[in-house]
């Protein structure tokens, strides 16, 4: 398996625009701030360390010079007392001693600074150890006749910088992050409102309070959304007006047919004609219902469990065996009559082709699922999606409305998708067909 760092980085990156914008704004600023701060502070700390080293080495040089003028034990004792009292240095003159055989530590800033100053001011062999003691620096200088050992406080020869750097970076990062959050929150909020309005409109809910806000690009997108919404509404209204006229024109001759048939004597032929007229009326209603859609009905908070119980009673009155199970709170905004037609189409279809029907409604975090199982003949796997096509009729299997228009499932899916959900078909554990109607909460 190949290692792909960019793919892994892409997976680890946040997906939200707000978080990504924060990273885009804050990350470069923090990196630049860290670089500038490091360069500036490093030069500052280097200069301070050099000054402290100069002062310490100057004190050592003065003490060594006085001792070499009069190298006696009394002089060593006096100089040691003065150094400890006034210079915070612990010194000792070790006659006949030698420098340690181990090499000096000379790779850090403090080591380099002290070494340069000792070479410049004292110009004698020396040995330095800045790591053996946490609070002291061990300095040893070879003079004729012995070694001068000095223990200097680390804080007097070196400027500690780590805590200052961390405090500076944390403070600067917090200021940048606060400013970015306050700025971006107001810039992202109009985009979130636009997304919510588009989602609500896709679910068939009204968004009358939505207005373009935010940056000019966001306002343009919001204005385009509002224009699109109005075009869709005008198209639906024009289609509905046209179909209403067609319905009126078709109902008129059908009404004349019914009146003429009522005047004829009751015979098998006239009864067949009456059945054909009733079938034509029902087909006309299905055509108009499919073409009209469900957008004209207002959305209202609906108890889906109560609606399912109502559909169960209607199905049982029509002779279907329907068992209902409801789990959890099923209140959600719906176009009640339209969604009732969606559920009725699916449940009546199951009852028409099966002896028993089981309906289960379950709510989870994101949506509500209505599962309709039956023990009928089912639908072949290769036609589970085909049956949603308008006017599609099954030849050797079941159909939503046998002898009808073939619009039942198309209407059901259209209504479900108009609420932001969907209708899916599969094989049922009961042996027949399973229809699952999803609706987002």
Question: Can you offer a commentary on this structure?
Answer:
This protein is α+β, with helices and mostly antiparallel strands. Among the domains are: 13-160, Beta-Lactamase; 300-440, 2-Layer Sandwich (Heat Shock Protein 90). The protein has 11 helices and 11 strands. The protein has helices at residues 5-12, 17-69, 73-86, 109-121, 154-157, 162-202, 216-263, 268-292, 304-317, 336-353, 408-418, and strands spanning 89-95, 126-129, 136-143, 146-153, 300-303, 322-327, 331-334, 357-363, 367-374, 422-427, 433-440. The strands form 3 sheets. The chain has a 5-stranded mixed sheet with strand order 6-8-9-11-10, covered by helices on one side. It has a 4-stranded antiparallel sheet with strand order 1-4-3-2. It has a two-stranded antiparallel ribbon with strand order 5-7. A hairpin with a 3-residue loop joins β8 (357-363) and β9.
SSE succession: HHHEHEEEHHHHEHEEHEEHEE
Structure classification:
alpha+beta
The CATH topology name of the domain at 13-160 reads Beta-Lactamase
The total of helices stands at 11
Strand order of the largest sheet: 6-8-9-11-10
DSSP, total strands: 11
**CATH A-level architecture of the domain at 13-160:** 2-Layer Sandwich
Task: Let me know the average pLDDT.
Answer: 80
Percent strand: 15-25%
**Mind telling me the CATH superfamily name of the domain at 13-160?**
Sensor histidine kinase RisS, periplasmic domain
What Rg, in angstroms, do the CA atoms define? 45 Å
CATH C-level name of the domain at 13-160: Alpha Beta
Major beta sheet summary: 5 strands, mixed
Q: Which percent bin holds the helix content? A: 55-70%
Distance between the amino and carboxyl termini: 41 Å
What sort of overall outline do the alpha carbons produce when their principal axes are compared? rod-shaped
* Uncertain runs: 396-403
Catalytic activity: ATP + protein L-histidine = ADP + protein N-phospho-L-histidine
Subcellular location: Cell inner membrane
Pfam family, one: HAMP
Keywords: ATP-binding, Cell inner membrane, Cell membrane, Kinase, Membrane, Nucleotide-binding, Phosphoprotein, Transferase, Transmembrane, Transmembrane helix, Two-component regulatory system
């Amino acid at each position: 398996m190949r290692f792909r760092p960019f793919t892994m980085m892409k997976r680890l990156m946040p997906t939200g625009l707000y978080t990504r914008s924060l990273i885009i704004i804050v990350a470069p600023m923090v990196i630049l701030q860290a670089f500038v701060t490091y360069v500036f502070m490093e030069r500052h700390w280097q200069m301070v360390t050099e000054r402290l080293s100069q002062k310490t080495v100057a004190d050592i040089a003065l003490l060594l010079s006085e001792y070499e003028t009069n190298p006696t034990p009394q002089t060593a004792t006096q100089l040691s007392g003065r150094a400890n009292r006034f210079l915070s240095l612990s010194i000792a003159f070790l006659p006949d001693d030698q420098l340690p055989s181990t090499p000096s530590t000379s790779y850090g800033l403090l080591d380099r600074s002290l070494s340069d100053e000792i070479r410049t001011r004292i110009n004698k062999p020396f040995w330095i150890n800045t790591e053996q003691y946490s609070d002291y620096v061990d300095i040893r200088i070879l003079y004729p006749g012995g070694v001068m050992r000095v223990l200097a406080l680390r804080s007097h020869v070196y400027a500690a910088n780590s805590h200052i750097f961390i405090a500076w970076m944390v403070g600067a990062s917090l200021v940048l992050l606060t400013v970015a959050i306050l700025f971006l929150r107001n810039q992202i909020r109009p985009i979130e409102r636009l997304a919510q309005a588009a989602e609500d409109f896709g679910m068939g809910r009204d968004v009358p309070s939505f207005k373009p806000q935010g940056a000019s690009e966001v306002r343009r997108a919001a204005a385009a959304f509002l224009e699109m919404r109005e075009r869709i509404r005008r198209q639906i209204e024009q289609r509905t007006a046209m179909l209403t006229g067609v319905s009126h024109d078709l109902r008129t001759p059908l009404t004349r047919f019914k009146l003429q048939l009522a005047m004829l004597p009751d015979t098998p032929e006239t009864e067949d004609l009456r059945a054909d007229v009733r079938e034509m009326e029902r087909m006309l209603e299905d055509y108009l219902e499919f073409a009209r859609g469900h957008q004209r009905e207002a959305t209202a908070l609906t108890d889906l469990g109560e609606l399912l119980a109502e559909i169960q009673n209607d199905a049982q009155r029509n002779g279907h065996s329907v068992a209902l199970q409801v789990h959890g709170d099923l209140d959600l905004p719906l176009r009640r009559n339209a969604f009732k037609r969606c559920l009725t189409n699916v449940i009546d279809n199951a009852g028409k082709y099966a002896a028993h029907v089981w309906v289960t409604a379950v709510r989870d975090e994101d949506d509500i699922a209505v599962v309709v199982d039956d023990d009928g003949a089912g639908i072949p796997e290769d036609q589970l999606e085909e049956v949603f096509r308008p006017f599609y009729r099954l030849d050797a299997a079941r159909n939503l409305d046998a002898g009808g228009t073939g619009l039942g499932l198309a209407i059901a899916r259209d209504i479900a998708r108009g609420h932001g959900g969907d209708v899916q078909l599969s094989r049922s554990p009961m042996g027949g067909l399973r229809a699952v109607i999803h609706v987002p909460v």
